[in-house]
Write a structure and sequence with these properties.
The protein is mostly helical and 135 residues long. It has helices at residues 2-7, 38-49, 54-67, 84-101, 108-123. It is elongated.
Length: 135
């Protein structure tokens, strides 16, 4: 009985069992992913992307195909902090390509979101192209 009563006692904010000192803010969030949990996050992202509407899925595949050409060693998509204007320029060029291929094209905002998602996947192990920086 002694053991269970100690477990149920409230602890001060600075003390957590098994940790010396205050917790880092990110470890206090529910569902915290420890280092190396990128594969789990990617699987979750890819599962949710399967629920996109059909048109968005088609645009996503096309954005991935076009981004394959920018997926090489030293590419700006693998920079620690990719330049916002370079990504914006890439999104605009993707929009121009899509305008030539289709009648109803998505807005530039949607292409930017799909592009950022695809860059995120490639930077964290969901590579589609040939260059894999973690190997």
């Amino acid at each position: 009985m002694e053991f269970h009563s100690k477990l149920l006692q409230p602890l001060s904010e600075n003390k957590v069992r098994g940790w010396n000192g205050p917790l880092p803010f990110y470890m206090a969030y529910p569902g915290y992913y420890s280092p190396g949990g990128e594969q789990e996050l990617l699987q979750d992202l890819e599962y949710l992307q399967q629920m996109y509407p059909n048109d968005v899925k088609r645009y996503q595949r096309r954005v991935a195909d076009i981004l394959d050409k920018a997926d090489y060693e030293g590419s700006m998509i693998y920079d620690e902090y990719p330049d916002r204007y370079s990504l914006l320029s890439l999104a605009r060029s993707i929009c121009r390509i899509l305008e030539k291929e289709e009648e109803n094209t998505p807005g530039e905002d949607m292409i930017q979101v799909l592009l950022c998602n695809e860059v995120y996947k490639r930077r964290h192990g969901g590579c589609r192209g040939s260059f894999r920086p973690w190997q």
